[in-house]
Design goal:
Elements (H helix, E strand, L loop, with lengths): L2 H7 L14 H12 L10 E6 L2 H9 L5 H6 L2 E8 L2 H11 L2 H11 L4 H25 L3 E5 L4 H8 L4 E10 L19 H4 L4
Antiparallel strand pairs: 1-2, 2-4, 3-4
């Protein structure tokens, strides 16, 4: 299947079949794909937590707002987190990068406010989200990106150390009756002339 076909068929899953689980070999591939995600200056300011434990999913579902059933029924939930403190990123990640990356960071990013740097770090994690959703679709795995969660409660449940939850993704296999799938509800996107420019 071409990537264009994958893009046409991928959708945000609203209802999962709880009896269908993703096999361990596939999960290991997804972990490696996330590890290989791109980021600006190869900064990699992230941590990815894969959760299949039913009890932990149940606890997270309680603090997932309107996403409760997705968290409970999906095969796995993947939590995307960003390094919490700028100084920790500078001490740990930056020291592992090539000199030119450090020079760029120190010249362009470090003079900015702490809030701006934290926004830049979070943007890198969002790059990995796009990579991950595309990978899932290419492997026939359904997914639901979720910002509608209580991130502080996720951190408390997962006992995050030095990292802060940004969002999560439920992954698994759709319920055949999921009304959001393109075969039942055609995908809506703005017309090309409203979003694409050629100069």
């Amino acid at each position: 299947m071409s990537f264009l076909d994958i893009a046409k068929n991928r959708y945000t899953t609203k209802k999962y079949d709880p009896s269908m689980k993703i096999d361990n070999a596939t999960i290991e591939k997804l972990k490696e794909i996330l590890r290989l995600s791109p980021s600006s200056i190869n900064s990699q300011p992230w941590k990815f937590t894969f959760i299949s434990d039913a009890e932990m999913k149940k606890e997270l579902a309680k603090v997932s707002c309107h996403n409760e059933s997705k968290v409970n029924d999906a095969s796995h939930v993947v939590v995307f987190s960003v390094v919490e403190e700028v100084k920790d990123f500078e001490k740990k990640n930056l020291s592992l990068l090539p000199e030119r990356a450090g020079l760029y960071y120190n010249r362009v990013l470090k003079p900015r406010s702490k809030a701006e740097i934290k926004t830049w770090l979070a943007c890198q994690v969002y790059l990995s989200l796009g990579f991950f959703l595309s990978a899932c679709a290419s492997m026939g795995i359904d997914s639901t990106p979720m910002e509608g969660i209580q991130c502080e409660e996720y951190d408390r449940n997962l006992q995050q150390n030095g990292y802060k939850t940004l969002f999560a993704v439920a992954i698994g296999y759709r319920d055949k009756e999921d009304e959001n799938q393109p075969s039942l509800t055609p995908k809506f996107r703005l017309d090309p002339e409203n979003v694409i420019r050629s100069i």
